[in-house]
Amino acid sequence: MLKSIKIKNFKSVQDLEIELGRVNVFIGENGCGKTSILEAIGMGTAAFSNELNQSVLFNKGIRVTEGNLMRSAFDTSKGNTPIHIGLTNQAGNNLAYDIAVSGKSFEINKAYSNIDEQEPRRRMYEEILGILNKNKRLQKEIASELNKRKKTNQVKEDHAFIEKKFQEDLEIILKSSIDLDNDSNYWRKYIYLSNNRTKLEGFDVDDYMIYTPENHFLRRFEDEGQILPIGKQGEGLFKHLVELFKNDDSFAEDICKQLKLINWFDGLEIPSDLAFTEMRLNIKDRFIKENIEYFDQRSANEGFLYLLFYFTLFLSKETPRFFAVDNIDNALNPKLCRELINRLTELAKEKKKQVILTTHNPAILDGLDLKDDEQRLFVVYRNADGHTKAKRVPPPKDIDGIETVRLSEAFIRGYIGGLPKNF
């Protein structure tokens, strides 16, 4: 889980550092830079995966424009200054990137880290050696070579042999009759380490997304995105639901329990008689029992579809561990917003997710418990120079005999900021 982010020279963010919790809510007037912060994090996670290309950035939910609009334009004398994104995890490990911009192209100009990136590989060698002892076929071929290289201190510097051998044998190993059910993750993890940079513990950010679900994609399941399992606007939701209903024994019960936030809801299922190309959900209304047993997503109200999306996002093991949702209050009743945040916070803790949410709806704030350090509220604003800044809202202080003002009311009254001041 990330502890903090540092952003320099990105859009309206000139220089900003934010310490995150598990559930983070951003409020602020239109155009203050809430989404820009989310996009800057997306740039950093793309750099982490070495995938700073337009298609990846677009699919992450980043608005990619010309380079002079991606960098801050407050000081024209520093027009070629790279974008700087820094990520620090709970263990205090940090990664930072200077990202050069040319037109709509991006590349890592310089990377910084306080981490010994070979350490995860060294630990993997030890674990793999243990597995090889169970596998006589590979023991003679690889284990001796590994041990020899360890003795000559070549393990750290020279990975060519082992990478090549593991590439050749990976599919055979995973498909063989050898009982590696409990160990195959080691093989997969090693290949990931070898091929996709070092997967550093505590930096589970490579699949970070900014979700902006849209009614069209939530209602029309035919549309699919390039990102699996669920695209930034909700594409692919139906296919992922089918997989979850099929492979996760507890999912159906869990999602139905959460969806009962909607008063009329009485059940959800994947029809068993679907044609090959048919994509339809059966949704049950507890008030309709005689002539219509179920209706499908095309007849469902918009708020229900958004809830279905959000709860799937938090319940699924396949969705990102770290992500953002822009304007989470869209199409939802204020009281429902409050309870939604309450439940999503519980799910984030249970499923070990970390999330950043933006909102303009004061009711969202009432779902937060700011006395819990894992729940944080930030007011995003632009200072006198136009730079995007963020301040954390502290938990309200209890005063004997005086009722604490609700966060929603404090927001509306302007006590905590986040409202326009020009009218």
From TrEMBL:
Annotated SUPFAM superfamilies: P-loop containing nucleoside triphosphate hydrolases
Superkingdom of the organism of origin: Bacteria
Gene3D superfamilies according to UniProt: P-loop containing nucleotide triphosphate hydrolases (3.40.50.300)
InterPro entries in the cross-refs: ATPase_AAA_core, Bact_Antivir_Def_Nuclease, P-loop_NTPase, RecF-like
Domain ATPase AAA-type core, chain residue ranges per copy: 23-366
One Gene Ontology MF term: ATP hydrolysis activity
Pfam families: AAA_21
Protein name: SMC domain protein
